[in-house]
Design a protein that fits this description.
Length: 57
């Protein structure tokens, strides 16, 4: 199982990894705006693309 997880994480780009780390450590729900500001993604459209990419995986 660990090898599968590592293989999947190796396929992610840095923005996707940042989002996963942020959401994984957050103890409360966050808004899209909080997420965008806290992990410094340049625009809402980029964040939406990252979230959609993660959803497909």
């Amino acid at each position: 199982m660990r090898l599968i997880l590592i293989a999947q994480l190796n396929r992610l780009d840095q923005s996707e990894i940042d989002v996963i780390k942020y959401l994984g450590t957050s103890t409360t729900p966050v808004t899209r705006e909080q997420l965008r500001q806290d992990i410094t993604i340049s625009s809402d459209s980029k964040l939406i693309n990252v979230l959609q990419s993660l959803q497909r995986r």
